[in-house]
Amino acid sequence: MREKLSMTSGKVCESQLCESRICHGAQVTVGPMTVPILAAALLCLVLTAVQLVSLTIAIGRLRRKTIQQRPGTHYPMVSLIRPLCGLDNYAVDTLGSSFNLDYPCYEILFCVAAANDPVLPLVKALMAAHPNIAVRLLIGDDRVSANPKLNNVVKGWRAASHPWIVIADSNVLIPADYIQRLFSSWQADTGLVASPPIGSRPQGFWAEIECTFLNTYQARWQYVVDSFGNGFAQGKTMLWRREDLERAGGIATLGKEVAEDAAATKIVRAAGLKVRLVDWPFAQPLGRRSASEVWNRQLRWARLRRASFFVYFLPELLSGGIVPMICAAIVANALDWPVALCVTGFAAIWYGSEMAFAVAAGWHVSMLYPVHGLIRDLILPALFVGALRSNDFVWRGNAIAVERVRPVRITARLRPRMHELAALGRKRLRTLRARAS
Questions:
Q1: What is the per-residue pLDDT across 399-415, written as a single tens digit (0 to 9) for each?
Q2: Superfamily assignment of 67-196+234-289 in CATH?
Q3: Nearest to 97 by CA among 178, 202, 7
Q4: What is the pTM of this model?
Q5: Fewest C-beta in 10 Å: which of 32, 198, 252, 393?
Q6: What CA–CA distance (Å, rounded) separates 316 from 35?
Q7: pLDDT digits (tens, 9 = 90+) for 310-327
């Protein structure tokens, strides 16, 4: 009887052991497969957190109360330089807005490189319609750099009568309190105040796509960086104190970089000063855009960012919603959840948060924004690759080349930053060890 019980017990134990081995074997087989899934889940969470936090920081920065000029406040004399080349969409509105400033002491200098530029009749008509405004039209091309816009601006800078100078692109719609808003962001440690363009009045599908690039993508990240005191100049609008740039070598110094705003950022930082963004950015009416116009403009800007600020350019590879959506699909498939439904829900959260940001900022937003945002994010990786593969572009008929990608120079640029990060890591590690002991 005992032998039978022992044999029966042995069979039960052997059966349980086999079952346990089967179960544990299954776990060992599945275990390694969970590593990429966990990595995808972690990457998805991190990128989503970055998305939501950046939107929160940007809207907080944009909602900062602007300091208004009080009665009796001293108004510095300002020269407004507007470089012109061709006729932009809404040119009557954007150029005409130069004459409607609610500011007591300013002059306007319109700069045109060619005497046969099609914008000249419009400018002359506007000047004739506002005889009481101090305005001059300067024609000529002073070639001080490879940047045609800077070459056009030089004569305006040299002819400016006042100690404060604003350089504003021809396609910026200037509000009545334009200059006051620029000065409200000027502080004791400021070397330059700038404003990113905010897309408005889009007409058509591709103009809507450009709005998603300008507003909820580029402007958002510029205001996030500015919130940490590390702002970048934007050539659309720049307020200079003349003596600051003259001390650095004058207006021609901006030709050290292909893009004058990149050179401006480096010059200001080298002087121990800061670039600050205006509290409420200014609109750029878009009108109608074609696919090639949007692509060429964004590719040009991507190549300029890569050439001037390579370290800041690299994270753009992971920007946008495509990578986190792919990660969400991987996780959903691993958990046997409906992939299409999960990805759609994730996209609704991702692009819905951007829509909420645009609404809170008072910017244009379409009900088809999720479609426009998705297409933008599909274009972003192609822009990244295109920025690395080529170095030249055409801007308003002018062929321009940026610095080529050179691994040795890139490594040299990255090395100081890596040393800083390593030193910071060692410092934190010592702090943790001290606390543990």
A1: 666 666 555 455 565 56
A2: Spore Coat Polysaccharide Biosynthesis Protein SpsA; Chain A (3.90.550.10)
A3: 178
A4: 0.83
A5: 32
A6: 25
A7: 988 999 999 999 999 999
